[in-house]
Every structure is written in structure tokens, then in C-alpha cells.
Specification:
mainly beta; Thrombin, subunit H; six-stranded antiparallel barrel; 8 strands; disordered C terminus
């Protein structure tokens, strides 16, 4: 993959589906495949509207986030492919401009999920 670089954060592979929406339109974009405090992988029925390098504000719905289990994050689309086996669209995003407090809250929510860690890279 062009421009590939090693991940900075350990990703957690999720064992349940957690919805991701466009924070402005509230329309579902897809579901989390894995997540870290620095990025996420998204599965969707159709291509994510943002092009590579474009930004989108996503609304993450995870137990343990904030008062209502929701956090909005600015994410930059890094890559996207279509899984030819499932016909799902898969996209990788890097989280941008996450405050220290929000990053800590996100890390706590990820730990709380009780999922298995997937080694970085």
C-alpha cells in the first residue's frame, strides 16, 4: 500500500458491532472493525464518502464513552478497499485533534470492552 507506515497505537479487535455515524447528519457510516486511541477500521455497506486524505467527523458509539456512550472525533481517511468475499467496504482512519481528556476516555472505553488486543503493525 502506498504511503504505508507502522501504526503508532495498539489496535483492539472488537468482538461486537459498534455503530459509527456521520456526526453532522447522524446517518450510519458503518461499524467498527478495530479501534485504538489513534485510529480505527470501519466496515460499511457502501464506500465512505470521504476520499483518501479527506476528513470526516465521526460519531463513535461505545459503552463507557461520556455520559451517553457517544464521542465525536475528527478522522482522516488513510485507505479504503472493497472486500471481494463479503462485498463490504473497509476503510482505515487516523484520529486527528483528539484532546488529552477525550483520548484518555477513549482508551478507558476500549479497555472496558473486554476484547482481545491485536499487536500493532
Amino acid at each position: 500500500m502506498q504511503g504505508w507506515k507502522p501504526r503508532k497505537h495498539r489496535r483492539v479487535q472488537l468482538t461486537r458491532y459498534f455503530e459509527v455515524s456521520n456526526a453532522y447528519t447522524n446517518q450510519r457510516v458503518g461499524f467498527l472493525g478495530d479501534i485504538s486511541s489513534g485510529g480505527l477500521m470501519l466496515y460499511a455497506d457502501r464506500p465512505v464518502e470521504a476520499g483518501p486524505g479527506d476528513f470526516i467527523t465521526l460519531s463513535l458509539k461505545l459503552p463507557g464513552l461520556g455520559k451517553d456512550g457517544v464521542m465525536s472525533v475528527l478522522a482522516r481517511k488513510i485507505w479504503a478497499v472493497q472486500d471481494w468475499l463479503t462485498s463490504l467496504h473497509v476503510a482505515g482512519f487516523e484520529l486527528e485533534g483528539v484532546t488529552r481528556q477525550d483520548r484518555h476516555e477513549l482508551e478507558d472505553a476500549i479497555r472496558h470492552l473486554g476484547t482481545r488486543a491485536q499487536a500493532a503493525g
